[in-house]
Amino acid sequence: MTQVTIIGGGVAGLCVAQNLLNRGAEVTVYDKGGAPGPHACSWWAGGMLAPHCEGESAEEPVIRLGQEAADWWDFHTGAVTRNGSLVISPTRDEADLRRFARRTSQFKEVNGAEIAALEPDLEGRFSKGLYFETEAHLAPRQALASLREKLIQAGVNFITEEADPKAHATNGLTVDCRGFTAKDTLEDLRGVKGEMLILSCPDVTLSRPIRLLHPRIPLYIVPRGDGIFMLGATQIEATASKHVTARSLLELLSAAYALNPAFGEAEILETGVDNRPAFPDNLPRIRRDGNLIQANGLFRHGFLLAPALARMVAEAIFDNATPEVMDETAA
Amino acid sequence: MRDFYGVTLANGFMLGTAQYPSPAILADAFKRSGASVATVSLRRESGQDRAGQDFWALIKDLGVHILPNTAGCHTVKEAVTTAHMAREVFGTKWIKLEVIGEEDTLQPDVFGLTEAARILSEDGFEVFPYCTEDLVVAGKLVDAGCEVLMPWGAPIGSGQGLNNVFGLRAMRAHFPDIPLVVDAGLGLPSHAAQAMELGYDAVLLNTAVAKAGDPALMAEAFASAIKAGVQAQISDPMEPRDMAAPSTPVIGKAFLS
C-alpha cells in the first residue's frame, strides 16, 4: 500500500488526503495547529464556488477547474448550497456591471423585479444584475470540519506537530500543502493580504452570495444562515499583519451598508486577516522533486480549486501523469 | 525630449502597477509596451514591517525607472511620511506626490500639495506633483521646487480623456521648459496620442491598462499611440482651417460635364 505524508491540514491538505485515500493510499496528515482553525487561511475563506464569476479577473484554468468543486464538496461533505450567485452594482456604477458581463459567461441578466424575487431583502435597491444560476457556496468551517471527521473515520492519521517536508521526503512520499508557510522553500510564492468580517444581522436574509461591484471597493457577502454573514474581502499586495486595518473595515462596512442599510445595525462577530498563497500568475502549482510534492498557490480560490489540485496530485502519484499545473519536475 | 530631474527617458510612457489580474500579467504589460517608468503605491502595501516587499521585489525586477507615489494620502503629513518610506524602500529621490482633497473626484488638494512639495523638495526629493491644469497652482509648485508638473486629464480612474484641452495647451505654452506629464483620466490610446500631440512629455496611466480585458495588448496599444503622438508633434502638424482646401490641384483639370 502506498504511504503518503501530507503536511498542512487546511483546505489543500484535506482535499489531497481525501483524493489519495480514494486511490488506496495510507495517509498521515501533519498540522502544527491541529484541526482547521484561525491559523489556516481557509478558515477565513468566503466559500463561494463561483468559477464563472471568478472569470471576470481570473484566467481560464480557474473557470474550468473550478467547475469540479461544487460536486466534489457536495459528495464529500454535503455542505453545499446550490442557489447560484448574484452580481449587482449601484446605478451609477452600471458600467462596471456591463464590464463584468463582457468578461464572464453562464449568467442571466436580471432586472429589479427579478432581483427582488431572488432576494426579497434587496427589493427596490438595485435595478440591474447578473444571475449565475449554476454556482454554489458552502460554509468553509463546517466543510473543513466534516471533511476532517470523515477522513479520521476512514483511518487517516492526524498528528498535531510541526513537520519538515524535506525530512519526511527522505522516508517516503510527502505532499507539502502548507500554503504561505511553504514560502521558506518556494521562492516565487507571495502572500496576498485578505481581510474579512463576520457579521450577525438577523434583520437581513440572503439566499446566495452577492457581489456588489464598485470601482474602488468590490465586495462580496456570503450568507452563512441564521442571520450570519461573511463579508469580504480586501486583496492587498502585502504580507498580512495580525489585524484588520481601520480603512479596510470602513470600506467593507460601507459597501455592506450600500447593499442594505440594515447592515448598519449588524454586530461584528469576528474580523479576520490572512495571507493567500499566490504565485506570480495567481494560478496554483504542483512541483515534484523525487519524493517531495508541493501543492500550493491556491490564491483566493482555495475551496474552488483544491478539489482539482488534489485530483492532479493523485494523478501525479498514481498515474505518473504530468498535471497541467505542474511546472517543475526534478527527478 | 525634456529630461526628468536629469534623467532622459526612452519614451514618455509611465505605467502604474495596481489592479492587474496578476503580477505575471503586469510584467507582461511592461515587457510588451516598453514603458519606461513604473509607478507604485506604497500606501496600501505599507506597514512598519515592510509587508509589501514581495510585491516590491516584482516591481524592481521589471528593470524600469521606479516612481513611487503617495496615492491615497489626504494630508501633508501622510504624504511626507509615505515619501520618506518610498525613498528608503526603492532607493530613489523620485516621488509622485498625491494629496487628495475630495473623495468623489479624487481631485488634488492643491494647497496641501504645494506645502508637501516644498517640504519634500527642501529635503532633497525630486517631486512629480499630481495637480490640476491651474496655471497659478502650477507656478507655485515650480516655486516650491518642482521641476516636473503632472496635470490631470480627467479624474483618476474615470477614463474620460483630456477634459480641458484648452487648459492643457495653455499650460504647455506657459511652462515651455518644464517637463509636463498628463497624469490620470486617460481611457484610450487616442487620449494619450492627443496629449503627446499637445507637446506633453509623457503620460501616466494605470486603470486603462490594468482593467482592460487584455492588459498587455492594451499597454502595447498605448505605447504605439504615444509614439504616434510624439511623431506627429515633432513633424509640425498642419493648422486646422475653416474652409475646405482641395488636396489635389483643380486648375488644369478637364471639365467633362
TrEMBL record, chain A:
One of its GO terms (biological process) is thiamine diphosphate biosynthetic process. Residues 4-315 form the FAD dependent oxidoreductase domain. InterPro entries: FAD-dep_OxRdtase, FAD/NAD-bd_sf, Gly_oxidase_ThiO. One of its GO terms (cellular component) is cytoplasm. The keyword Iron does not apply. Coiled coil: none annotated. Keywords: Oxidoreductase, Thiamine biosynthesis. One of its GO terms (molecular function) is flavin adenine dinucleotide binding. Pfam families: DAO. Pathway: Cofactor biosynthesis; thiamine diphosphate biosynthesis. This is Glycine oxidase. It comes from Cognatiyoonia sediminum.
Automatic annotation (TrEMBL), chain B:
Homotetramer. Forms heterodimers with either ThiH or ThiS. Catalyzes the rearrangement of 1-deoxy-D-xylulose 5-phosphate (DXP) to produce the thiazole phosphate moiety of thiamine. Sulfur is provided by the thiocarboxylate moiety of the carrier protein ThiS. In vitro, sulfur can be provided by H(2)S. One of its GO terms (molecular function) is thiazole synthase activity. Pathway: Cofactor biosynthesis; thiamine diphosphate biosynthesis. The active site is at K96 (schiff-base intermediate with dxp). Pfam families: ThiG. GO terms for cellular component: cytoplasm. GO terms for biological process: thiamine diphosphate biosynthetic process. It is found in: Cytoplasm. InterPro entries: Aldolase_TIM, Thiazole_synthase_ThiG, ThiG. It is an enzyme of class 2 (transferase). SUPFAM superfamilies: ThiG-like. Belongs to the ThiG family. Its EC number is 2.8.1.10. It comes from Cognatiyoonia sediminum. Keywords: Cytoplasm, Schiff base, Thiamine biosynthesis, Transferase. Its main location: cytoplasm. This is Thiazole synthase. Residues 5-249 form the Thiazole synthase ThiG domain. It catalyses: [ThiS sulfur-carrier protein]-C-terminal-Gly-aminoethanethioate + 2-iminoacetate + 1-deoxy-D-xylulose 5-phosphate = [ThiS sulfur-carrier protein]-C-terminal Gly-Gly + 2-[(2R,5Z)-2-carboxy-4-methylthiazol-5(2H)-ylidene]ethyl phosphate + 2 H2O + H(+). HAMAP family: ThiG (MF_00443).
